[in-house]
Specification:
By secondary structure, the protein is an alpha+beta fold. Helix content is 43%, strand content 23%. Strand 2 and strand 3 form a beta hairpin. It is rod-shaped, with a radius of gyration of 37 Å.
Length: 128
């Protein structure tokens, strides 16, 4: 009921000239037809392009670094001079499954294998 009331008021408020101007179509040759909607492939192309860029700029280099770190940790042995993530430089005295014992100056301590970031010198096992 309310809908009919408002549509009737709207019809009374709009002048007849305005309704004829809106409803009459322009001449056949004067306006171009509306452009066709873009197809699905063209809409998805930017998303695919963004994913490819993210893969080559973020994901692939991170995977390469992870493989390089695993290779470094697999080759870790006693006598190697290493640097940890916190900047400690020491010589490996023993290697366990998840940890490494280091000797640095007069201190001896144990760190996780994952904290070793670089092998400075590969050495042989020399116990003191």
């Amino acid at each position: 009921m309310h809908m009919n009331f408002f549509s009737a008021m709207l019809a009374d408020a709009v002048p007849a000239a305005a309704t004829t101007a809106v409803t009459t179509a322009p001449a056949a040759g004067s306006a171009a037809p509306p452009p066709p909607p873009p197809n699905f492939a063209m809409q998805m192309a930017p998303m695919v392009l963004i994913f490819v860029v993210f893969y080559f700029l973020l994901i692939r280099p991170q995977q390469k670094r992870a493989k390089q770190q695993q290779k470094l940790l697999a080759g870790l042995k006693a006598g190697d001079k290493v640097v940890t993530g916190s900047g400690i430089i020491g010589v490996v005295t023993s290697v366990r499954e998840k940890s490494v014992s280091l000797r640095s100056a007069d201190a001896k301590f144990e760190v996780t294998k994952a904290s070793v970031t670089e092998i400075l010198e590969a050495g042989t096992a020399t116990e003191s």
